[in-house]
């Protein structure tokens, strides 16, 4: 199962990076957001799950809350209008952006999901908090982009999936993608870890009883 997750994550990553999202539709903010969410919220957790079975010891990066803060800086930083414009105009900037999205995503999901040699319950709680914190900041950014009174990323119309969108529509669609993919996936991950903690506590109490 883990090998399947790893393969699926890598295939998805290749489709995102070498498909039309970052080439044909690179001027569309909605296409950018599909690529962004695909990397950090879908491909990264799949790869992290598969990585756990690789035999590679990566316990030195088992720091979920730090990973969440790093992802916050990466995500908010690359959505500054000046950096967004740079990415649209530069292949080098696009590569740098996507590499940082993947690195931050893998760091967070791996740190949150991997077993810990320390108190496993405390580590799971830290992982749950980190994923929930990420869900909160992505919800906030998505809401700010959706409710912005003017487009932040250009004024020209763009084409995405054959649809012609003006700048405001493009930004609002991108914001909705962030809210319904990114925020929801991280929320689900955090809730799943909390559920695992409660299940372990219940099991321990039954064993003692």
Automatic annotation (TrEMBL):
Coiled coil: none annotated. Its main location: membrane. It is a multi-pass membrane protein. The chain crosses the membrane at residues 33-51, 58-79, 91-113, 125-147, 173-195. This is Cytochrome c oxidase assembly factor CtaG. One of its GO terms (cellular component) is plasma membrane. It is found in: Cell membrane. Keywords: Cell membrane, Membrane, Transmembrane, Transmembrane helix. Pfam families: Caa3_CtaG. It comes from Neomesorhizobium albiziae. The keyword RNA-binding does not apply. It comes from the Bacteria.
């Amino acid at each position: 199962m883990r090998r399947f997750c790893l393969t699926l994550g890598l295939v998805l990553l290749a489709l995102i990076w070498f498909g039309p999202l970052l080439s044909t539709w690179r001027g569309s903010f909605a296409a950018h957001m599909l690529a962004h969410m695909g990397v950090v919220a879908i491909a990264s957790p799949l790869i992290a799950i598969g990585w756990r079975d690789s035999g590679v010891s990566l316990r030195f990066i088992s720091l979920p809350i730090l990973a969440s803060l790093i992802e916050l800086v990466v995500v908010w930083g690359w959505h500054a209008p000046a950096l967004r414009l740079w990415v649209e105009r530069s292949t080098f900037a696009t590569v740098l952006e996507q590499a940082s999205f993947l690195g931050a995503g893998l760091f967070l999901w791996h740190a949150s999901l991997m077993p810990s040699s320390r108190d496993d319950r405390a580590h799971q709680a830290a992982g749950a908090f980190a994923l929930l914190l990420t869900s909160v900041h992505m919800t906030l950014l998505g809401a700010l982009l959706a409710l912005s009174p003017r487009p932040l990323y250009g004024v020209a119309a763009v084409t995405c999936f054959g649809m012609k969108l003006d700048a405001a529509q493009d930004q609002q669609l991108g914001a909705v993608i962030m809210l319904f993919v990114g925020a929801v996936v991280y929320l689900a991950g955090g809730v799943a870890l909390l559920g695992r903690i409660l299940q372990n506590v219940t099991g321990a109490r039954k064993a003692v009883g």
